[in-house]
Amino acid sequence: MEAWIWIGFVVFILGMLALDLGVLNRKAHVPSIPEAFAWTGLWVSVTLAFNAFVYFAYEHHLLGIGERIGHATPGAQAAVDFLTGYIVEYSLSLDNIFIIALIFAYFQVPLKYQHRVLFWGVLGAIVLRGIMIGAGAALIARFHWVEYAFGVLLIITAAKMLVAGNDQVEPERNPLVRLARKLYPVTSRFEGERFFTRLDGRRAITPLFLVLLLVESTDVMFAVDSIPAIFAITQDPFLVYTSNVFAILGLRSLYFALAGVINKFRYLKFSLVFILAFVGAKMLLSGFFYIPTLVSLAFIVTVLAVGILASVIATQRETRLVSPLGGELAELSRLTLPRVRRVVLLLALAEVALLAGGMALLLTGPNWVILPAGAVIFATEFIWVRRLLRHVRQTQAQQTATAADQPTLQDRSTAQAADTLRRRPTIELVQSPRRE
What we know:
Blueprint: H1 3-24, H2 33-59, H3 75-107, H4 111-142, H5 145-163, H6 175-183, E1 196-199, E2 202-205, H7 207-231, H8 237-258, H9 268-284, H10 293-317, H11 327-335, H12 337-360, H13 370-405, H14 407-423
Antiparallel strand pairs: 1-2
């Protein structure tokens, strides 16, 4: 009987997408920022309304919903799980906006065609994530150790995100793009909104189809991180899947409002690193004690708020364009990569120790020593990072002062910046020229 709720949800989502593309956005146009925010507000409202339905359905176990994971999930718990999963997916998908904007800039996709790519990209993501979530739920139900494997994966992903360099678009290295080029000829320019056309009497693909393949493959790579993160919140497949879908739909609407400024949120990746590390530690420690979902929700919201607020303050104080990772972190990763790796590992260890020690205070025996050990590690690394960042800022200030006294150095920096812009397309929400 629970299958009817699944069917109803899928029909509802397909109906909303059909209304979007077939009626409201039937003609290609460039969505304005107010329109993008209006659609985002609509999807957030629909999400909150659906969360109310989740509460009612699980509270009364409508059609048997909420009874498949070994216990009867109450409505309040299900609603909190859904909302937490939604926020986790939404926050982790923010970085995906930056990558999609890079792809559009690389192929010089006109703005009026980007909505169509995002629409079909969302449709493909709904199908692919459904398959991945179903497989993940089946593995966790059959092999308990998979939960710990997911936790390790999230910790590793957090470490890689912290020390990774700038994101780059390399279409020729994408296996889907290479396969498509082997199977079909590719036109030299866009053919309106069409993905397929005919070239010399043969079926051919347009660059817009290659963009769609890149967007889909990018979403799959991000899903490898985000889906295990939501499984750390709840293992109910319905809550995992529905929270994923609503987050994807909301982010797609928000794209046209954020794509041009997402790189200004320089500290957002710091927040994502802590979120991934937290949910990874939560999965690793799930066999020893339970961390309430409300605690997870409060932690995630707080970390996101701090990252966004810090980014806004930093942007107001600086007028130059900065990396999404932040200037300090980029400098860190180039000059002191071995020491940064040490910090990542020790901070992860400190977080696990603090969480374990906090719960160990409620237990008997010698386990209480874990907490001070974690606190010592955390404090030591925090002091080290502050000193290193202070040194980097002082170095940058000295370089800025030197550049102000020597105009030739400023000219050289301008030439280097121009060369960088030629090598990597800038993300701007403006009409891009058509390729010749």
